[in-house]
Amino acid sequence: AGEYLQLKGVDFGRKGARKLTAFIEGAARIDVRIDAPDGPLCGTLAAKPGKGFKEVSCSLKGLTGVHDLYFVFIDGGFRWDWWKMAR
After folding, report:
1. DSSP 33
2. What digits encode the pLDDT tens for the residues 11-33?
3. Which of 5, 33, 48, 65 has its CA 20 to 30 A from that of 74?
């Protein structure tokens, strides 16, 4: 909790990204933000506790153009294998 992962200069294009899906094991709450760790909130990915990896998704808003992207880890003890965004 309290840490983040930054991806610099992500180009979401004019149509942008509308959905985030991740393969997560454990409980997690991850805020998706742009331009800074406390920048505009674009979505929140929430995974409930449980055994084994599972796919979880959330809707995204405001992701168009070029931005630094931040995954801000709010709480939980989890592992993630992969993530993807879609229109």
Report:
1. E
2. 999 999 999 999 999 999 999 99
3. 65
